[in-house]
Amino acid sequence: MILDRLARGVDDRLRLSPITRKALAKVFPDHWSFMLGEIALYSFIALILTGVYLTFFFEASSADRVYHGSYAPLDGSTTSAAYASTVRLSWDVRAGLLIRQTHHWAAVVFVAAIVVHLIRIFFTGAFRKPRELNWLVGVTMLTLALANGFTGYSMPDDLLSGMGLRIIVSVVESIPVVGAWLAFLALGGEFPSDEMIPRLFVSHVLLVPAVLVALISVHLAMVVRQKHSQFPGPGRTEHNVVGSRFWPSYTLRSLALFAWVVAVLFALGGLVQINPVWLYGPFSPAEATSPAQPDWYVTWGDGALRLFPAWELRIGGYLVPSPFIPGVVIGGVTFLALYAWPFLERLRTRDRRQHHLLDRPRDHPVRMGVGVAALTFYAVLVVAAGDDIIARLLRVSVYDVLSVLRVVVLVLPLLTGTLAFLLARALSHGDAARLGELTRADLAKARDVHRPPAGHRARKTAEVDEPERPARDRPGERIELWPEGEVWRWRYRDAPGGVAILGNRAASTEQEAASAAQLAYPGVDRVVVPGPPARPPGKVRAVLRRGANAAMGVSLLVAALRQRRARRSGSDRPGEPPR
Amino acid sequence: MTPAPPGVNRRIVCSFLVSAAGATGFAVTYGLGGQTQWEGVCLAVAFAGLASGLAIWGRRLVPTGGYVEEHEGLTPPLGEQAMAGDALAAPDSPIRRRGLLGALALALTALGAAALFPLRSLLPWDRTRPVEALKDTPWRPGVRLVTADGRPLRPADVPTGTVVAVFPEGDLDAGDAPAFAVRLQPERFTRPPAGGHLDGLVVHSLLCTHAGCPVRLYLHGTGRVLCPCHQSSFDLFAGAEPVAGPAARPLPGLPIEVGPDGFLRATADFTAPPGAGFWSRP
């Protein structure tokens, strides 16, 4: 009652009900792959919540501090305040270790979710017009996530992360002309400087998160404005979104996903040790630990540094050290290629139409080939970052592992890329529906096709600016409108296909309902029907009906048995008179 | 409200009860002194209970799928773009005054460029030039070699068969100064060490010339040191030249002598800037 009045009061002043009505009815497509970005978002929320807790106990300073606490091996030793406070946070602050490990795991999951989300967007062509802008925002967030992961990892001033930071500084110093200046601008001195940890801290907890929050808002606002893309399917067109509504379905499901993500993060944070800095010891410029691997999302860079040969060049007496190409060029090219991909692809396909229906990965063999080749390349780099561990496991020389990987990193991407290209082409041109159904004939055909089928290209060059209108050749399709009390509702129905999809919200007039239906299904005939048609059984109804059927079956069975028994008992007792 | 299918309500309520139990468990664990694993499990159970209850609710009690929302497309309505453009470029619109705009752009550019200048304050406050800082280390003639705990070193303190990390006296924390002393058989030298040797006692920079990690792994007997970061290895018998891995330059040597007090001391800085390379490295 009070809530009701409060809501009315707010609405009278802000007039929110029209927006709310539309927002609550917003339709999200039902496919698991649309949840990957949400996992990233929820990890980010977990990162902020756990991170704020950590800031109360972490001391971002390289000043000397004597650690006194329950971790006996370090008790009484003098380390940097950053390291001492991290050990105290882990050992002496209640729930501190849980929160710290959960924070670290959340960072690991955050970047992983972003990368998988990016892979989904890439292979389904979701970055095409009109979503190129959001792709750029997303790639920027990936770089920021990597940067923030690295700064967070380096702040505790432990030996392992100190070595990692030194490597990054060396990579920055390798940049021609400005490298040393950039490194000094960032650190305020030669590595390891006193300004280093406070600066890492400010960028980790303030600068980058603030930019990330802003970009996440832009990212989501653009999704709301442009609406979701969707996979092709019955009743789905370039002019609609088919799925479940935000309220109540996705509200519950999204909250559930948030809680799942947090549950998994806390389980990891509580049970799986990560970054035990007290075992690594405090950073000292003369010490090293072995084996030394960074967090997974930096390993591709580390692997590249390990694989790249000892090539240095001198330009007019100046030095370009060997980390420049694997460290700066490969990283730079990676992100440039990511930023440029939507535009490169458009340059090639000359496709300027808007797309709201997604590709299946097979629909675009070149994209498939390039994507798989790139993923293979980075996967080999990640493996290369563990070359010393592989060598130890296989009991071979680390340099033999290195030699093999140097060949593999160049050859394997070509092989997998070509294979993926051919398979995608065989699938898109042949009759096989799935990978397992491919025949040798399909593959042979894929190898021989040297250009995309005529229809493909022709359809793309025609009507450049107009969104694609699907051919309406299904005679069974129609739009049904009906009044329901004060409001009008509509639904799309494809009787031969057995499809019925309800309009997501009520309209105040028949006109309004008709125009919504007209937008979603251009060119489909409309009819006004007298009343609400019998709804197709939803899951709940199906269960109910199944239950009712089962109950009816059981009761029939029971009745039959009882009747039979009654008849038999009747015939068994000859003394009684027959009825 | 459609009646819930049998059992669904019970499952949701159970999930939320499990969640409450998990939360209580966390509070109790914390109150009893805290235990990381239990805390993690309790919180995980609390959130998993919440998640499972909400998920069942979302899947079983509310309609899922089967809705369509129209997409009005993102191509602007006919004429809208032109009207917006006209509104922007009305006769007395600021964007028509090109001259003023030019002056405004000049002012803003100047302001933006001026705003970049304070960034310079992020450089070292003592105004050392990066290149000089990278080239110079605290080693200079007469600086004694000390161990990690600050003890000066006599030649006899360097054992055969292992390496000893050495630092310039008074500068134990300098990032570019760490070096190591090792005793080798002089007859096995294939190339004289850059910093010279005292009866096989040589001192080299500890920092890998690839990416600056300390080359702390000494492969006993082979006279090689290995960097644990990217596996560069250096042959100490051959002037500490890199023999494998991504490093391309030898480890700089440190020229040493025995001082009048019997302790080892440097006679100069490293024979080359230590650690990773940079543009103006000689």
UniProtKB/TrEMBL annotation, chain A:
<keyword id="KW-0408">Iron</keyword>
<feature type="transmembrane region" description="Helical">
    <location>
        <begin position="104"/>
        <end position="123"/>
    </location>
</feature>
<feature type="compositionally biased region" description="Basic and acidic residues">
    <location>
        <begin position="460"/>
        <end position="475"/>
    </location>
</feature>
<keyword id="KW-0679">Respiratory chain</keyword>
<keyword id="KW-1133">Transmembrane helix</keyword>
<feature type="transmembrane region" description="Helical">
    <location>
        <begin position="201"/>
        <end position="224"/>
    </location>
</feature>
<dbReference type="Pfam" id="PF13631">
    <property type="entry name" value="Cytochrom_B_N_2"/>
</dbReference>
<dbReference type="GO" id="GO:0022904">
    <property type="term" value="P:respiratory electron transport chain"/>
</dbReference>
<dbReference type="InterPro" id="IPR016174">
    <property type="entry name" value="Di-haem_cyt_TM"/>
</dbReference>
<keyword id="KW-0479">Metal-binding</keyword>
<dbReference type="GO" id="GO:0008121">
    <property type="term" value="F:quinol-cytochrome-c reductase activity"/>
</dbReference>
<feature type="transmembrane region" description="Helical">
    <location>
        <begin position="404"/>
        <end position="424"/>
    </location>
</feature>
<keyword id="KW-1278">Translocase</keyword>
<feature type="region of interest" description="Disordered">
    <location>
        <begin position="447"/>
        <end position="475"/>
    </location>
</feature>
<protein>
    <recommendedName>
        <fullName>Cytochrome bc1 complex cytochrome b subunit</fullName>
        <ecNumber>7.1.1.8</ecNumber>
    </recommendedName>
</protein>
<keyword id="KW-0349">Heme</keyword>
<feature type="transmembrane region" description="Helical">
    <location>
        <begin position="135"/>
        <end position="155"/>
    </location>
</feature>
<feature type="transmembrane region" description="Helical">
    <location>
        <begin position="255"/>
        <end position="274"/>
    </location>
</feature>
<feature type="transmembrane region" description="Helical">
    <location>
        <begin position="167"/>
        <end position="189"/>
    </location>
</feature>
<keyword id="KW-0813">Transport</keyword>
<feature type="transmembrane region" description="Helical">
    <location>
        <begin position="324"/>
        <end position="344"/>
    </location>
</feature>
<feature type="transmembrane region" description="Helical">
    <location>
        <begin position="39"/>
        <end position="58"/>
    </location>
</feature>
TrEMBL record, chain B:
<keyword id="KW-1133">Transmembrane helix</keyword>
<dbReference type="InterPro" id="IPR036922">
    <property type="entry name" value="Rieske_2Fe-2S_sf"/>
</dbReference>
<protein>
    <recommendedName>
        <fullName>Cytochrome bc1 complex Rieske iron-sulfur subunit</fullName>
    </recommendedName>
</protein>
<keyword id="KW-0479">Metal-binding</keyword>
<dbReference type="GO" id="GO:0051537">
    <property type="term" value="F:2 iron, 2 sulfur cluster binding"/>
</dbReference>
<dbReference type="GO" id="GO:0004497">
    <property type="term" value="F:monooxygenase activity"/>
</dbReference>
<feature type="transmembrane region" description="Helical">
    <location>
        <begin position="38"/>
        <end position="57"/>
    </location>
</feature>
<dbReference type="GO" id="GO:0016705">
    <property type="term" value="F:oxidoreductase activity, acting on paired donors, with incorporation or reduction of molecular oxygen"/>
</dbReference>
<dbReference type="InterPro" id="IPR014349">
    <property type="entry name" value="Rieske_Fe-S_prot"/>
</dbReference>
<keyword id="KW-0411">Iron-sulfur</keyword>
<dbReference type="Pfam" id="PF00355">
    <property type="entry name" value="Rieske"/>
</dbReference>
<keyword id="KW-0408">Iron</keyword>
<comment type="function">
    <text>Iron-sulfur subunit of the cytochrome bc1 complex, an essential component of the respiratory electron transport chain required for ATP synthesis. The bc1 complex catalyzes the oxidation of menaquinol and the reduction of cytochrome c in the respiratory chain. The bc1 complex operates through a Q-cycle mechanism that couples electron transfer to generation of the proton gradient that drives ATP synthesis.</text>
</comment>
<feature type="transmembrane region" description="Helical">
    <location>
        <begin position="100"/>
        <end position="119"/>
    </location>
</feature>
<dbReference type="InterPro" id="IPR017941">
    <property type="entry name" value="Rieske_2Fe-2S"/>
</dbReference>
<keyword id="KW-1015">Disulfide bond</keyword>
<feature type="domain" description="Rieske">
    <location>
        <begin position="164"/>
        <end position="265"/>
    </location>
</feature>
<keyword id="KW-0472">Membrane</keyword>
<dbReference type="GO" id="GO:0046872">
    <property type="term" value="F:metal ion binding"/>
</dbReference>
<keyword id="KW-0812">Transmembrane</keyword>
<keyword id="KW-0001">2Fe-2S</keyword>
<feature type="transmembrane region" description="Helical">
    <location>
        <begin position="12"/>
        <end position="32"/>
    </location>
</feature>
